[in-house]
Amino acid sequence: MDTRRFPHLLLCLLCMCLLLVSCSFTSVPTATSVTPSRAAGSAMLGVDAQHTHDNPHEHILTYANVSHLVPDWSSFATGGSIFSSPVVAGGVVFIGSLDGRLYAFDETGCDSPPCAPLWTSPQTGDAIYSSPAVAAGVVYAGSLDHKLYAFHLHGITP
Predict the structure, then answer these.
(1) 65, 59 in Cβ contact below 8 A?
(2) What are the tens digits of pLDDT across the range 96-108?
(3) What pLDDT was estimated at residue 115?
(4) For the purposes of burial, counting CB atoms within 10 Å of the CB of 94, is it exposed (0-12), middle (13-18) or buried (19 or more)?
(5) Which CATH number fits the domain that encloses residue 143?
């Protein structure tokens, strides 16, 4: 290799690096310059096109107001812990329990909590961890006994 060309190659390489670096500093549109494509009230991740998560119509819990929360009602203790999320359909709240039963409560609660269930399913073969699903007047709940159970909204087995 001819050592006399080395400084020229080094200079060429340095110029190419500077060119690449200067190209990377060109202006790119920011989120603030983007115009929202949908109305603020539409269902969109992050509420708007900028994904700000700012919803002026929402009432947000803060440190200032969370201490003022009081429960509307509560249920009596089921025979096991509750891991499933409640499902509401037809004015009834459904919840599965680790005691293997599905519980149905009036969504408006009762006059003096703890509220008794409207109905309780017969015991399934094992715990109900999953959240129930409701379709066409039937409540479905999966159990750890590897079975799917179906109950009428009003507690009668379909």
Answers:
(1) no
(2) 999 999 999 999 9
(3) 93
(4) buried
(5) 2.40.128.630
